[in-house]
């Protein structure tokens, strides 16, 4: 009877104590979370309840296993697997705590920071630090597990004796990987590019969706994902539209006839820009920037709060100016001129954009 009760007491007691400790910690975290709702840390730490149970259970079992008096001749093998499970559970618990701390810091800083760019920079740095620490924890845990085996201890001693040669070989072989690793750290703390930044890389416009220690994911405007090594951003030029603030200025180009009424066009542009909700009120302008034997180039410059607002504002302004020119000044649109240079600019032959015939007084030998 004692041979049955001892294992039941040891294993049952370890399970009960593990659940009791995890339950007590969970209740404590819940109370602290209710008292301090401004920070999500305590609520996020409750995600570590399962790995905490595993750590406590295995630790208790490892201490009191001899009291169970079962399978004593298998004690070395049992110790080996208990140590392996304890190392894995501890690493799991550390990663859960790390994720909770990083997520809490990101949320709290985003809530108090008045500068969105700084909030994105902190998020990028914390994300890269989390990934780096996760890699270190996993490597240490895997190494600790491997060192539990005698064959691996012998192998580790042999590798340590030739560490100098292996280090040189590994450095040469992993040159690209190490370059990306240091480039990722440079991006995180050099503030070159951050998560959420709008960038243009090789003619592709998109938003930085994810940054790791080795690669960067760019989400394009058409929902594609471009994966690029982070070393690209430390070795080649790229455009960062979010650096220095999200506000931007953009241009609208029109190719018009020499007879285009630039003064009226400028006045109409001002009316359209001021009436558009996407204009941020900072600046606008309209000037003639170039001329050719047949056309002139008119450039309108407008500003907006973000790149998305700027794109919409430019499209709206371009469309509205073309509609106004077609209805009010169709002769200003470029075409094939057959008249002499002395004809009046208002003389136009044919129909306008709405299909109405022009009067004989406004005829001109010009095909629009």
Key phrases:
368 residues, alpha+beta, 5-stranded antiparallel sheet, 3-stranded antiparallel sheet, 11 helices, 10 strands, 16% strand, disordered C terminus
Provide a descriptive summary of the structure in words.
This protein is an alpha+beta fold and 368 residues long. The strands form three sheets. It has a five-stranded antiparallel beta sheet. A three-stranded antiparallel beta sheet has the order 6-8-7, with helices on one face. Helix 10 packs across helix 11. It is elongated and about 105 Å long. The C terminus is likely disordered.
Strand content: 15-25%
Order of helices and strands: HHHHHHHHEEEEHEEHEEHEE
Spans of 5+ residues with little confidence (pLDDT < 50)?
Answer: 340-344, 346-368
* Average pLDDT reading: 76
Major sheet details: 5 strands, antiparallel
Overall form: elongated
Strand order of the largest sheet: 4-3-2-1-5
Number of strands: 10
**Structural class by SSE content:** alpha+beta
Helix content range of the residues, please? 55-70%
Span of the ends, CA to CA: 107 Å
Radius of gyration of CA atoms, rounded to a whole number: 35 Å
Structure annotation, total helices? 11
